[in-house]
Specification:
Blueprint (H helix, E strand, L loop, with lengths): L2 E5 L2 E3 L5 E8 L8 E6 L6 E6 L6 E3 L7 E6 L4 E6 L8 E8 L3 E3 L3 E5 L2
Length: about 120
């Protein structure tokens, strides 16, 4: 069955960096756009970044442009989110997403940006 497993979250000070990973299995990873979403406490889940099947095209929410980088390794069935210059408002649970015939979500990884 399809599985998306996120990792790499944690507590980081403002201005710091984290790299999130999402390991995918159960579907042809290289055939699908992959996305990272986040959900802050008391807020709706929002799209952070997306990457095309080959990685040639990426898109970002304005709030993270220039600070976050999404990438993928199709040989490892993994998508990454490099997060730099983190701000307290980046605090959220980050989710990996794939849309095939169905919509799949990982369990999320928590990122807390605080001094």
């Amino acid at each position: 069955q399809v599985q998306l497993v996120e990792s790499g979250g944690g507590l980081v000070q403002p201005g710091g960096s984290l790299r999130l990973s999402c390991a995918a299995s159960g579907f042809t990873f290289s055939s699908y756009t992959m996305r990272w979403y986040r959900q802050a406490p008391g807020k709706e889940r929002e799209l952070v970044a997306s990457i095309s099947r080959t990685g040639s095209s990426t898109n970002y929410d304005d709030s993270v442009k220039g600070r976050f980088t999404i990438s993928r390794d199709n040989a490892k069935n993994t998508v990454y989110l490099q997060m730099n210059s983190l701000k307290p408002e980046d605090t959220a649970v980050y989710y990996c997403n794939a849309v095939t015939q169905y919509v799949y979500w990982g369990q999320g990884t928590r990122v807390t940006v605080s001094s």
